[in-house]
Amino acid sequence: MTRFTSGARRAGLVVGAMALVLSALPSASVAATGGGEGGGGDGPRWCPRVVGQRVDCGSLRRPLVVGEPELGTIGVSYAVVRHRGQGPARGTVAVNPGGPGEVAIDKAGEFAAGLAELLEDHDLLLVDPRGTGKSERMPCGVTDAEYRFGTRQEQRDAVARCARTLGPRAQGYTTAATADDIDAVRARLGVRQLTLYGLSYGTYLMPVYASRHPESVRAVVLSGAYPHDFDPLVRPSAEAVSLALRRVCERSVPKACDGDKAVRDLATTAARLRERPLTVPIEAGGKTYRERFTEGKLANLMYEAASRGAGMEPDGASLLGSAPWALDRFVKGDTGPLRRLVREEGSSGSAEDQAPYIAVVCNDYRKAWAADAPPSVRWQQYRKALAGAGQGGFGAFSGQGFTEGPTDGGDVCISWPRENTARPQPTDLALPDVPVLVLSGDLDANTPDANGRLAAGKFRHSTFFSVRNVGHVPELEPSGCVTGITSRFIRGGAPGDTSCLESLAPIAVTPVGR
Fold it and tell me: Which of 15, 5, 43, 10 is nearest to 409 (CA)?
């Protein structure tokens, strides 16, 4: 979810990718030109320039932890891309691109391009969450590449080390704190209500904002959504991997693979890696990492990475479209294609500090153990939950193997301390009765449409679309269909004509040899 990204964070994990794609849409008429003072606006030197748009920027000091002044304050920065039309804005759209920990301000040009139609009469508010981007950094010494390529034990150790480094400041990294930061920015700007637009983890953040500041919410758009009471064992994602493989094979023209065989090949590959993991050298950020590619790493590749970007270029190569062929070759004794996919996916690893990701995930997300329990009891509770789940709910994977895949779930936070950390985010939110649009890609195993439906059901008046032939965050599709639907919804409270959703092309699939 980047959650799960995500993700999509590590760029991918999210949805920074969304902004890059949006800039190429036919509706785009503006482009970013880099830093400096905002295009015609007021603000600090880091304020982004966006051609054809006024950009106003600023920062404010916020309590690191409310009620604990001895921990000090933290700087939170924002940018407002102003509307082009005459007169006052019809509304202000606050966008969060996911993560946790994905930056927003540096993507001002891309978001402005993708939401060009809305910017005719709406302002766009971008807030870098505390600890990221132009907001004040609070690192813990764990890099993206180190965390990403580490074994499961190394990931758990990195979580514990991150907590030790942050100490009591770890309490300052929560979804609720970020929501309150956004509202403080709203109040400073004198904006009465926001339209909340959350992508990936942003679909977790924005309902928290809505529950804490209901009077400040005009409408909500959630894309790549999941509910706050999601399954901590991530079973819907495991099942969605098999569903995505079947769908891409069934829809391929000409037929490139057999979906049932692809799922069987995935199960065989998972079983072999369970017994004998691969070692895959990965070049990332000028360094070489030797990843131990286990069943858990395969799970992460198939549910998170393969969902990211699916449908972004329907005719081009993609990880999901290549997966049936690579799995077929692996089962037949050729590990080369799967190794290549692992290397290509891993090349985006970076030296970015993971404190905003690790701390928010481990503070807030629902776990299969009690937060107040000591480590030994947590392990007992986790193993009991895993044993109680059986094997049927994990698709082609074993339960143990699949739950070692998520970098924000399973047992990864089990060493997050009880002391100096925040209480988990409540899952039973009191939400305002406002118009809500929820979108899921039907090839997305990261935040599958089953989770999107659950997220939509938390609101009294919501509209849900499962978008065919796209993966994580449907706005990635290149036709402009989805962004058109969201723009109409934000403007008028209804999606309007959605017939274009029926014509989104299936993704290209590498043919599987007979």
Answer: 5
Average pLDDT of the residues of the chain? 92
**Confidence label for 269 from pLDDT (cuts 50, 70 and 90):** very high
pTM: 0.93
428 CA to centre of own chain: 21
Bridge partners of 74, per DSSP, are: 62
Position 513 scores a pLDDT of: 85
Q: What are the Cα distances from residue 108, in Å, to 16, 168, 181, 376?
A: 11, 33, 19, 46
Q: Which residue in 248, 227, 203 sits closest to 450, CA to CA?
A: 227
DSSP designation for 51: T
Residues 381, 384, 385, 389, Cα dihedral to 10°:
180
Q: Which of 11, 27, 54, 102 is nearest to 345 (CA)?
A: 11
Chain segment 448-485, per-residue pLDDT in tens: 999 999 999 999 999 999 999 999 999 989 999 999 99
What's the CA gap between 93 and 490, in Å, rounded?
A: 8
What are the E-state strand segments in 173-251? 194-199, 217-223
